[in-house]
Structure formats: structure tokens, C-alpha cells
Amino acid sequence: EAQVTQNPRYLITVTGKKLTVTCSQNMNHEYMSWYRQDPGLGLRQIYYSMNVEVTDKGDVPEGYKVSRKEKRNFPLILESPSPNQTSLYFCASSSTSEETQYFGPGTRLLVL
Amino acid sequence: GENVEQHPSTLSVQEGDSAVIKCTYSDSASNYFPWYKQELGKRPQLIIDIRSNVGEKKDQRIAVTLNKTAKHFSLHITETQPEDSAVYFCAATTGTGGFKTIFGAGTRLFVKA
Question: In chain B, pLDDT over 70 holds for what percent of residues?
Fold first, then answer.
């Protein structure tokens, strides 16, 4: 089954404790993105990747890092999480820049 | 920075009526315009999309129109049904030299039976 998976689905952590949210897709897609969703703000792109080893900043990259060492995986790293990073995070992938993005199930993060 | 404005933020219609949601984008290089539906607690899913070389696209009860000159695109849902109730997001992607995607803030659609 074609899908995008994210782990963990729920995470409660404390300020400053490094964490990684994993994202994996099995559709051989070149394009992948991370978004955060906050009430009233829609989805905001954090980082995107157009292929292995090709990543770039989206609209709200501060406080986040990504890597794309393999085509299927695109982890999101928070080196020193802060409470303002409490949010719902979605990973997404697409075959080209003009095709639909398939979203993962989301990761709900709470930073205390 | 670039942005996408979406209106209205809330829309309530009677079952069987039409619903229209409008978006305006700022980046003239945007070339792909998808619409996503998000039900409560679920992930966004594409319902229709349009590319910059097309003015209109229809899929059963759903249609999208694009006016590149005005940088404006709209979603039209006809014969609405209670299961159409959800949050709808428009987005604009600039695929040239990158993959920046900007979403609108969303429209919560209520369809009353």
C-alpha cells in the first residue's frame, strides 16, 4: 500500500531535549516536505527536499533541521525544542512539484 | 514574504446549495494550485488541483477556476452534502528552482442537512 508514515504520532517532551520525528514514503517520490499546522494559520512549510541531499528552507525553518540521505526518508530534527514549537506536524511527499502531495498521519508535539 | 489569502474563514450552507471559496496568491511564479480537504483529526487530502496553463477544471461536483492575471483561484462545490463538511485549504506552489508551497489559512465548511 502506497503511504507516508511518521513516528512518533504523539510526543510530549521538555524544553531543550533534542528530538527527531521520522518520515518515510514508499512511493519513490523525489519531493518531500515538512509542515506545521497551528489553529488559524493553516499549514506552514518548514523545509522541503527535491531529491537526495537536496534540501531548502520553507517559510518557517527556524529551530528545525532536516536531512535527506535516502530517497524514502526525510527526518525532522529539533535540536533544542521550545514551547513555541508545540504543534501538529505533517510530512508529505509528491512525485513532482506539480502533483498532489500525499500527507503522513501527523505528529502531535507538546513541548513543556 | 509570499502569502495566500483565503476567504471566507467559515462558510455555512444548506444541503444542496453551492459553496464557493476564494484564494488570492502573491507570488507570480506560482504554477500549481491544489485544494485539500481535511476532516477532523485526519490528514489533508487532495480534492482537485489546477496548473498554471489551465483556466478551469471540473471533477463531478467540484470545480476550480484560475485567473493568473488577477492571481486568484476559486473552489466551487455544487449540490453540497453533509459529508462535504470539513476544513478546506487552498495552496500555491512555486516549482521553478524550488518547491515552496504556501497554504491559505483554511475555510471551515458546514453543510446543514
Answer: 100
